[in-house]
Predict the 3D structure of the following.
Amino acid sequence: MNRQPSLLKIITIDYIAFLGWLFPVVMWGMYVVLIVLGNVKINDLTLPVTFAVITVVALAILIWRIQVFNTIFSDGIEATATINNVSFFRDRGRVDYVYTYQGQKYVSGNAIHKVKQTLALKAGEQVVLMVDRNNPKRVFIRDLYVG
């Protein structure tokens, strides 16, 4: 079975990665619109420099998040968990679960984006997690990101 996470699924489902991708797209789109409308002078560098700094930070967060997923999915351990809470507010949500790793019980969760796959998650449902060997509280639901 392929255990490597899909880049597209990481960006669309993981809320932190989604924001790392969304910020630069929205900011630069807004900048182009402001130029077209004549509200920004092209020779004024204040806005583009600010947007460039925010873009670098957002992309660094996105790259870091993708690296976290790839590390956990390539070196992590599978564990079974029971979802104890799924909640959404507008386009963002949170899924919390309880699992046992090496005989110890953990409660953890993830910030998720509201998409078809995450809306299907229900409290009481059993899921398979990928658990970070070095930090057992860092886990992701395997089937949300693989494929």
Summary: The beta strands are 77-89, 92-101, 104-113, 126-131, 139-141. The radius of gyration is 19 Å. The longest helix spans residues 46-75.
